[in-house]
Structure formats: C-alpha cells, structure tokens
C-alpha cells in the first residue's frame, strides 16, 4: 500500500471511532477546552463550525467571544491556506465549502490560537485531518509570522497509534478531549 492508501484506511477507522464517540457524547464535553482557553482571554482565537460528527467547540467559542476576537475558517480554494473570518454567537451565517457554516460577511483577521478539528491524533501531537492540507498550510504560514498555538479538539476515541504522517504535517501543541489535556510543547 502507498501512503495515500494507508492514510485513507487510517481515516476510515478514525471516522468510525469518532462516530461512535459522538453518539455517546457526555454533557460538558468541552469543559477542558474552556479551562485551557480561560488562560488566553482576549488572544485572537479561531475555532470551527462542527460538521458531521466533530466534537462541538461552539459553547467555548461563544464564551471566548466576550473577551476578544473569535473566528472560523473560510476555505479560499484547493491548495490555499485558510483565512479566518470573525464570528459572533447568533451572527448571520451562510453555507461555506464542505457544508460548514461561515459568517455571512467576511471580516478576516489572523488568530494566534487555532482550535483544530481532526480525524485522528497520536500521543506525540500528530494529527490526521481530512486530507486537503488546509490546516497544515495555514499553520505553516501563521507560525512563519509569529508564535501560533495549535490545539487539537477531539474525542478520546480518536487517538491512534502510528499515524501515517508526512514532513508537511504540522504538529499540534496541545490536544484536548472530553476527558484529558495533553501538551506536546517542547
């Protein structure tokens, strides 16, 4: 099998685990995320609008929006980094690429913290995404300008061993699940 096939198989397994975990979500699953982000009040932050069976960061994003700018990713096109548009709880939204909601009016800014969705993660800060490379390109761009904190947010069940990673895959600084906080900073 080549790397593309290996990644596809890893994604298939991880999607199944995530779907099972999503079906048994416990109330307050974002509690650890809220705890971590409370230490960064006012720092420009980007979360995401959950799709399919992704763990939901919206309650924590709403809390953070009371202290500073919060954005969501807007896909600009294949092969391009993401841009982040300011988001407000109850703000007007429109459908963006892949079915994710984005603000009706684009108001772009550069976040210093990214709460990153994922398909699978490992115990070393590796992340397997959907395969488009959007977050890898974006993190590389932002980290080239300033310190940028990448926090993966997922269900515990999404952890995997031996993820098929490439040199272009950007590592996470932290991973937060419904049960724990992992830090990978050196």
From TrEMBL:
* Origin superkingdom: Bacteria
Q: Which reaction equation describes what this protein catalyses?
A: (6S)-5-formyl-5,6,7,8-tetrahydrofolate + ATP = (6R)-5,10-methenyltetrahydrofolate + ADP + phosphate
Q: Does the keyword Protein biosynthesis apply?
A: no
Q: Does the keyword Ligase apply?
A: yes
| InterPro entries assigned to the protein according to its UniProt record, in alphabetical order | FTHF_cligase, FTHF_cligase-like_sf, NagB/RpiA_transferase-like
Keywords of the record, alphabetical order, are: ATP-binding, Ligase, Magnesium, Metal-binding, Nucleotide-binding
EC class: ligase
The name of this protein is 5-formyltetrahydrofolate cyclo-ligase
